[in-house]
Amino acid sequence: MIIVMKAGAEKKEKNEVLKRIRELGYKPHVIHGTTRDVIGAIGDERGKLVLQSIESMPGVESVVPILQPYKLASKEVKKEPSLVRISAAVTIGGREIVVMAGPCSVESESQIIDSAIAVKEAGAQVLRGGAFKPRTSPYSFQGLEEEGLKLLAKAREITGLPIVTEVVNPETAELVAEYADILQIGARNAQNFALLKKVGQLDRPVLLKRGMSMTIQEFLMSAEYVMSEGNQRVILCERGIRTFETATRNTLDLSAIPVLKEKTHLPVIADPSHGTGNHLYVAPMAYAAVAAGADGLMIEVHPDPERASSDGPQSLKPAKFAAMMAKLRLIAAAAERSL
Amino acid sequence: MIIVMKAGAEKKEKNEVLKRIRELGYKPHVIHGTTRDVIGAIGDERGKLVLQSIESMPGVESVVPILQPYKLASKEVKKEPSLVRISAAVTIGGREIVVMAGPCSVESESQIIDSAIAVKEAGAQVLRGGAFKPRTSPYSFQGLEEEGLKLLAKAREITGLPIVTEVVNPETAELVAEYADILQIGARNAQNFALLKKVGQLDRPVLLKRGMSMTIQEFLMSAEYVMSEGNQRVILCERGIRTFETATRNTLDLSAIPVLKEKTHLPVIADPSHGTGNHLYVAPMAYAAVAAGADGLMIEVHPDPERASSDGPQSLKPAKFAAMMAKLRLIAAAAERSL
Amino acid sequence: MIIVMKAGAEKKEKNEVLKRIRELGYKPHVIHGTTRDVIGAIGDERGKLVLQSIESMPGVESVVPILQPYKLASKEVKKEPSLVRISAAVTIGGREIVVMAGPCSVESESQIIDSAIAVKEAGAQVLRGGAFKPRTSPYSFQGLEEEGLKLLAKAREITGLPIVTEVVNPETAELVAEYADILQIGARNAQNFALLKKVGQLDRPVLLKRGMSMTIQEFLMSAEYVMSEGNQRVILCERGIRTFETATRNTLDLSAIPVLKEKTHLPVIADPSHGTGNHLYVAPMAYAAVAAGADGLMIEVHPDPERASSDGPQSLKPAKFAAMMAKLRLIAAAAERSL
Amino acid sequence: MIIVMKAGAEKKEKNEVLKRIRELGYKPHVIHGTTRDVIGAIGDERGKLVLQSIESMPGVESVVPILQPYKLASKEVKKEPSLVRISAAVTIGGREIVVMAGPCSVESESQIIDSAIAVKEAGAQVLRGGAFKPRTSPYSFQGLEEEGLKLLAKAREITGLPIVTEVVNPETAELVAEYADILQIGARNAQNFALLKKVGQLDRPVLLKRGMSMTIQEFLMSAEYVMSEGNQRVILCERGIRTFETATRNTLDLSAIPVLKEKTHLPVIADPSHGTGNHLYVAPMAYAAVAAGADGLMIEVHPDPERASSDGPQSLKPAKFAAMMAKLRLIAAAAERSL
């Protein structure tokens, strides 16, 4: 932490700050500037957040944090990229781009099995589908719940694809973990710390979506919550942030991919379906995500988007998805990745 | 819903849209414009969200929702303002401005009791204090949990002030409800639908904070979640939204107050402590909130902010809080309210 | 400036940074932390922006500016509030709240004169009205230009109210200055530096609107542009920033008022008409702005908003404006101001 | 336009709205819904903005625009993509990706000529360099002005590369046009309508950067300003929007590329240097932009970024730029483009 004193701070005020820094177990180091003093607080940084309270002391202008507040997620702790193993056949974070595809919600047996077969044929390695749905309206379809999980398991049996599905509640997390190969934490729960702790205690990889107004630092702090409970298998997913632009449902922040690759060893994927909210923009943004360095993609595919019970406008039909995958292979190869 | 067709949409495409509208149980009504057609879908609006999927049909440019998706929270359903009774002495939503004050976190018996006595003396009607704390870092102080609830109850016994405290998890909601007079849902859980449903089933008023990137419409949809489970006693709290500006911790959106007053019958309060993140700006924004029509305020007060275990920089000392309350009384009177 | 080195920065890299700091005329001061070094660069801060380029040197993690980049606008240079004199009768920045009111655009002689008489009767001290209009569409009404200026002058002659009107182009700035008492710089030109320099050379007070996505620091830098050319009579105007919220046209950032009061000696006013875009929300936000410490207001008033050639939805009718002014007087008094 | 009436609107209010629609020259068409009426206003849409003022009439809830307000920029007017010819050798908007590279500012003869030779060797087709610099601080380097233009011309003479440079003022626009092959409008001037009109009258292609808080619709309206003055040769440039995220200087909105391709025939390029503000992220975002469908790129290259007088942290060294170009060729080929 760097404590910036006001230009006219009195000596007494400065002494109080120095005293308080020492009380908190840090060593103060003063730089006398031309117009004001700046004080560095040296010591173990993990507890440094308490230094923030110094901001309310008289004579202090601001307190500037220097270090990132996450540890386990940081590249400083683990330099080489983490490989997250999903199944015997699928691992995320290596050379291979992993595509997770399927409908937004599980709606019926035929819908999820048809989807699973179609996305597998086109080259997807993981099946997605929501059984518990966090919907903004209490009057919208809330998912088939356990019945949906059973249908996902059936689709896995038939196709061999591992499945990713969302967990919305600590109370049902274990139930979901009985069926799912990857536990998804949705954007709206990205700072539901009770839920993050819970999935941190389960033996399943966690796909953590970025919250709609989450900074990259906060995103990594949420990953840290899961990891600090013992579960190191976290996959980060950029899925669009909220901005003033309304031409797309969210603004897919693809620069988050190289930024995350600079700061963390965890694999990073992108979700252009939620990121754009419009099936017309999914394929170009999928290509772009892979070109930017994403380790995988999450894509909504529905056999009949016009009749989907949720997120129809952003879902691809199977034929369009297959065409996208064909072009994606070329982009992946140009980016020295495989698919 | 209004379905806007593309300029060059074919007759066949339009017929498919008309057919689909009828299938979904609505009555289509076509307006032939000079460059394109626009189709209104008439019928019971509650299920209209499924019409959104028409956006992915060929020939369709966009689907524009006309109605608000909330019902119970809407002024169209209930015109007169709702009064939410907290205790024999305290009701929110009427002429009287209700001030909820106290520390961010309950830290110790003396801290919470001293705070309670101080805020009561200055005129606050409700005591706030966190026992379960949703912190962005897993390494930060997470609250005293049930011990904190017991200390809050003790402070209530001594001062008579009802207490408001946060619920972070459906699993511990009932425990919190045993102690608290008002259940607070924090900004990070504002779209944690499992939690919203849970507090909707409990017999306690709910203080719902606006999520950091929540539109006013989504805010009212979260209130609707609570209300649709049977609990009509919802208090809305504007606490700042996330914007590009970094001079304040969040951007307190005071225009949300008159907008909410236009759209809903529920009481609305403001939290200038979280909204600004800086004790210097709390009092002016508290005055402004009341002038804008707020029914109450939530203010962080700490006997020793420089030693607070959370949110020190935005906490007022008791003497400053008392001075603020004195001036607030004048503003309230000018705004034809009492305090 | 504080230069934060990477955790594993090599000695050679650090030496290069120290050398570069000295080359630029600053004195480096190293703090050895537990995991990394931090280097302060001490010296005259005006040119410190060039230090930013050190961020691209090997071994450097980030460069953190410590000082505000503005001088003339800063309270560190001038502690007491600036009074900006508009006319013999009107000065902004003192105890009196100054209200500038009138139509968005000057449309006709009767419209501007009726407006001027009406706003004066209700207690406004300055007449606003646009002659050169910056419209987002080239097909929208662009203003009456010089004819509009002449009509404004006529309205001033009749009512005695000084006039504020917008300058959109360095080429026509002198023409506008011949007629106007205050030169307004609109939000879309808030970083049009050629225009800022031009009005900095003219002998008229400048009303500078905050740009839609301008931080408070950038806002003060734009004021600094005007002041550094010699014109110290700058009035700052908060008029709403762009956020994700669409219930209001912009998000009026009232916390900018106490923040600006903390950082600058310049007077600060608010424009709730553009800030909200809806006549229903203008009065509550006007009260709130004054309660928050604003020195004045800018309000759109139109005799016939339904027929206004621009910004009808946010304009008040004269009777509503008069009612607002009556209540505003009470709020001003409670805030120890007069009107 | 669609006018949505309030649920309880009176017959008299509705009649007033119908009358007003007819007065404005449109034909009203009423849809009677189950809870409220909706009125379509049919007619020539160009002047429809005046219909917006109906929003302030009693009984009206909202006015919803249906049509895009731009014409010349729209794909509805011109379906095939526009090719913008820069020189005999360079055309933007076709199969070939056009890369514009060079330093942020022209600083000296050797700097610009070395840069020009380096970027040409690496495959860039256009030289960029600022002579008039819009800087947020009046105390920062403001550019070499005409001297800078002469140096750019010299670099063109030596390398044959056409040059793009910024215009900041209508007064100096013609001077810049004497030297430049492409006139750049910077982000801060993207709604400086006086400047847009001016370059619309000059016979030079215009590179229009998206404003920091500009929606895609507003971006196209600014293009429309240029085009409505007669200059159809407009190139759009996505350069990052302002969001809450601070890990990058701006948030490069790559989804704007496919959205613009859907709405306009104009070519679209991306500027990952300003978009990210960090040289580490420039190459991945350049690859991503081309994969997303960009017609070109603008990249800052500086022989000595640590000594650059502006934007050092985001500039690439020539060797890094050459490496990026090599990989970009592979991505372009995979995207069925050439470079």
Layout of strands and helices, then pairs:
Four copies of one chain form a homotetramer.
Chain A: E1 2-5, H1 11-23, E2 27-32, E3 37-42, E4 60-64, E5 84-85, E6 91-92, E7 98-102, H2 109-122, E8 126-128, H3 146-159, E9 163-166, H4 170-179, E10 182-185, H5 193-200, E11 206-209, H6 216-228, E12 234-238, H7 256-263, E13 268-270, H8 272-276, H9 279-292, E14 296-300, H10 318-334
Helix pairs in contact in A: 2-3, 2-10, 5-6, 9-10
Written overview of the protein:
The structure is a homotetramer. Chain A is of the alpha/beta class and about 350 residues long. Chain A folds into 2 domains: about 1-65, 2-Layer Sandwich (Alpha-Beta Plaits); about 85-335, Aldolase class I (TIM Barrel, Alpha-Beta Barrel). Chain A has 10 helices and 14 strands. Chain A has helices at about 10-25, 110-120, 145-160, 170-180, 195-200, 215-230, 255-265, 270-275, 280-290, 320-335, and strands at about 1-5, 25-30, 35-40, 60-65, 85, 90, 100, 125-130, 165, 180-185, 205-210, 235-240, 270, 295-300. In chain A, the strands form 3 sheets. An 8-stranded parallel β-barrel of chain A has the order 7-8-9-10-11-12-13-14, surrounded by 7 helices. In chain A, strands 2-3-1-4 form a 4-stranded antiparallel sheet, covered by helices on one side. The longest helix of chain A is centred in the last third of the chain and has 17 residues, at about 320-335. Chain A is elongated, with a radius of gyration of 23 Å. Chains in contact: A-B, A-C, A-D, B-C, B-D, C-D. At the A-B interface, helix 5 and helix 6 of A face helix 5 and helix 6 of B.
